[in-house]
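Severity: low
Component: inverse-folding endpoint
Summary: output formatting inconsistent between runs
Steps to reproduce: submit the following structure tokens with default settings.
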């Protein structure tokens, strides 16, 4: 091997991703050195339990339960522990010692990103996080670098593989949510406690990261509107299919014009919820546990990034790409490239968003009901585009199910109108309200 400068690389965490990163660093060290222009010496792996089972066999002498020497003696620190603490404290300590950071920790970046980036700027270090938003899919660099001279208008992303797997099977097989979730857990796509995935927390963290990059604005996690998929059932899937849609859990980051909030009119919306996507849209064809991010930019037009959103070896690919980038920066010298978050655009609440909707109602099957529903919608500034009625008969009770597609409406108007419908006495039950995205 060429006589390269040697860089010390430390790894925090040896779980599904960390163990693969370590194995690939050791296996392909010479090749990575040729790409980076520096030898990447893995000097230690910090773990909680030396004897825990791991996906790959790692040299015992590299394992340690004391991260301190690794944090203060390395050029590059790879953090793959996950969670907020001790990851945050360890990263700040490593930055203080002059190390560059590579991380896949979406929760940490979504909650403490500005603090970490500021700490890195103070010492001229860099934080790399390609694996934090969409696994193996390269989306961070395109947003941060390739599209830095463009104006991103909108991002729609399927950024959680677990929920996409569940919704995809429900759509294609007509299966129930609980049954598919159990299968996902058995296959390792879902955790024993799937809350972070199915309630949209994971996707919301990724949405905050993507929006911060796309709109050059620090987006706090609590500004992201979040809804999960636990209320999606077979009937909703069937209604979506009949209307020409598929249901996907989407992260939507959008540039809006809203003079109520900003004198310039420039605002952004960041939200996560199950939405109806037209079957001809590229995101509708994302199956299984795959992810995809659809970007609309003013000059570049429509761009789509597709691939594996999770998996140990797949995510390790993105991590190692960042390691090579960090090594090249060390060789070139100079300070790290900071984050561009100076636009400071206001993040508006969900009520300011304008889109189309599909409303499903149960009503009594009697004369005048349709007219009453239409009147209440009109009073609420919600216009009907399509309507399908199904009669349900049983136990001497005759009810009708109405599936109403709307024209574009403001979220606050729609929400208020649905509340009025629910309390009107005309509607026996509001079954569901789904937004339409991607028209």
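Observed output (run 2 of 3):
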């Amino acid at each position: 091997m060429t006589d390269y400068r040697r860089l010390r690389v430390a790894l925090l965490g040896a779980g599904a991703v960390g163990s693969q990163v370590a194995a690939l660093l050791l296996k392909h060290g010479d090749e990575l050195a040729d790409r980076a222009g520096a030898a990447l010496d893995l000097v230690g792996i910090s773990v909680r339990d030396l004897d825990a089972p791991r996906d790959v066999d790692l040299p015992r002498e590299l394992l340690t339960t004391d991260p301190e020497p690794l944090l203060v003696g390395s050029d590059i620190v790879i953090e793959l522990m996950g969670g907020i603490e001790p990851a945050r404290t360890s990263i700040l300590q490593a930055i203080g010692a002059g190390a560059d950071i590579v991380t896949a920790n979406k929760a940490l970046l979504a909650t403490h990103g500005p603090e970490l980036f500021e700490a890195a700027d103070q010492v001229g270090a860099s934080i790399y996080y390609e694996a934090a938003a969409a696994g193996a899919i390269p989306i961070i660099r395109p947003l941060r670098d390739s599209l830095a001279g463009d104006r991103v208008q909108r991002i729609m992303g399927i950024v959680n593989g677990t929920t996409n797997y569940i919704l995809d099977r429900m759509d294609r097989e007509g299966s129930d949510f609980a049954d598919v979730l159990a299968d996902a857990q058995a296959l390792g796509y879902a955790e024993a406690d799937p809350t972070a995935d199915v309630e949209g927390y994971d996707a919301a963290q990724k949405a905050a990261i993507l929006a911060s990059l796309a709109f050059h604005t620090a987006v706090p996690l609590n500004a992201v509107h979040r809804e999960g998929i636990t209320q999606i059932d077979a009937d909703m899937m069937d209604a979506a299919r009949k209307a020409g849609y598929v249901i996907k859990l989407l992260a939507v980051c959008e540039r809006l014009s809203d003079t109520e909030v900003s004198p310039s009119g420039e605002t952004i919306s960041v939200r996560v919820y199950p939405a109806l996507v037209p079957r001809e849209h590229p995101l509708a064809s994302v199956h299984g546990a795959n992810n995809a991010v659809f970007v609309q930019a003013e000059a570049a037009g429509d761009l789509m990034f597709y691939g594996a959103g999770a998996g140990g070896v797949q995510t390790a690919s993105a991590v190692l790409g960042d390691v090579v980038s960090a090594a090249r920066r060390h060789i070139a010298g100079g300070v790290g490239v900071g984050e561009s978050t100076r636009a400071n655009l206001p993040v508006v609440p969900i009520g300011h968003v304008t889109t189309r909707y599909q409303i499903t109602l149960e009503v009594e099957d009697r004369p005048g009901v349709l007219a009453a529903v239409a009147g209440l919608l009109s009073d609420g500034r919600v216009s009907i585009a399509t309507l399908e009625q199904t009669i349900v008969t049983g136990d001497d009770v005759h009810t009708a199910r109405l599936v109403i597609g709307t024209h574009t409406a403001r979220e606050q108007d729609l929400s208020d109108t649905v509340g009025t419908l629910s309390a009107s006495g005309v509607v026996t039950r509001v079954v569901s309200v789904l937004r339409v995205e991607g028209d």
